[in-house]
Amino acid sequence: MDITDINTLLQVGERISFECKQSGNQIPKSVWETYSAFANTVGGIIVLGITEHSEESDQSKRFEITGVNNPKKIEKGVLRYLKQQ
């Protein structure tokens, strides 16, 4: 997945199989709820480093790519959690 794919998903917005999560220095706790919901249905995509401005009615301004400060740390944390499950 690259920035073009992410932008395409953001144009449509969050839905039953796509969730965005703000993630600066750590994995948001809500990731695990979303992960579990996706695992118990048809699956889905979670993209970290996206801030949603839910009050924004203009879909093109609703999501902001804010990034992840330490991607390797976040990746290791996700993998460590999944190995424990």
List keywords for this structure.
globular, 85 residues, two-stranded parallel ribbon, alpha+beta
Q: Mind telling me the C-alpha Rg?
A: 13 Å
Number of strands: 4
Q: Helicity, in percent?
A: 40-55%
| Proportion of strand residues | 15-25%
- Tell me, briefly, the overall form: globular
Distance between the termini: 25 Å
> What's the helix-strand series?
HEHEEHEH
Describe the structure concisely.
The chain has 85 residues and is an alpha+beta fold. It has helices at residues 3-12, 30-39, 59-62, 71-84; strands at 18-21, 45-48, 50-52, 63-65.
Provide an overview of this structure.
The protein is an alpha+beta fold and 85 residues long. The protein has one domain (3-84). It contains four helices and four strands. Strand 1 (18-21), helix 2 (30-39) and strand 2 form a beta-alpha-beta unit.
SSE blueprint:
Blueprint: H1 3-12, E1 18-21, H2 30-39, E2 45-48, E3 50-52, H3 59-62, E4 63-65, H4 71-84
Parallel strand pairs: 1-2
Antiparallel strand pairs: 3-4
